[in-house]
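User: I'm curious what two different proteins look like when written out as structure tokens. Can you demonstrate?

Assistant: Sure. I'll show them one after the other, since each token string lines up with its own sequence. Here's the first protein:
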Amino acid sequence: MHDTDMAERLNDLEVRLTFVDDTVTSLADADASLTRRLLALERAIRDMRAELATIRTALGDDARNEPPPPHY
């Protein structure tokens, strides 16, 4: 192999590695963002469930204790 061939191959590998590194960084950033959003959504659902339970208790309604509708 000639030195120019080896230099071209090395240059090609360096360019590819740069693109791979950029892609990995972008994917890691996207993953971190999605993880933050997922945690926020889980927290919101937990808060809404607690609020719903409080409202049901305040109203004295528990859907599990209601009789079935007349058509049953």
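Here's a second, unrelated protein for contrast:
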Amino acid sequence: MEQQIYAQMAAIQGEHWWFVARRRILAAVLQRYVRLPDGARLLEAGCGMGGNLAMLAGFGQVSAFEPDAGARRIVGRESGLQIREGRLPDEVPFDAETFDLVAALDVLEHVEEDSASLATLRNKLRPGGWLVITVPAFAFLWSAHDEIHHHKRRYRKAELMRLVTGAGFCPVKVTYFNTLLFPVIALVRLVKGLLRIDKADGEAMPGNLVNRLLTALFASERHLLGRVWLPAGVSILMIARRAET
């Protein structure tokens, strides 16, 4: 991604409704479905500006890698962690079978070789280890947001399941999410596409009241996931385990 995107993420990820609600959803789903051993080791692949590290640290000892040098310096200074230089699929600076859980949160859409990247992440997991991934959903939602974030693709659930299974994982839970806001976001992006408006949506920090309302609405999906697996949404969430042959 471009440097201004990293800077923008750093400025808003602590309070912006999308980041805050997504962390709450991820924490709830991990708590509900993932069983980790005492002293578990976790890896975040492509940690960006580090917005998920504190949440992941609630489940064990966290390591991370990130290709951008500026992001590594800032996140390392603020988190106290050593953020390693690394890039999927071939430059991941950790030994095989090291981790109990690997998280790739809105990462796969940035890499050309998503299948090879998943195979690499499988290699870093201990037998029976867990994978949690999020990706953007539905090609028809492609917008300026995807362009400026250098996305390569958006996914459908069935497509992601085939990809993950082919890389040596057994999917455990998979669902669309950001569902309650999906109709509004889809309408905005479709209208912008028809009118050829190239300004990205959702990039600015909204007003305090709107931000609180959007946070509460999006985060409320954490109470649904697992009871109702949502049929459509702006993103996809998957939990899988390393398959053993």
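A detail about the second structure: The two ends are 37 Å apart (CA to CA).
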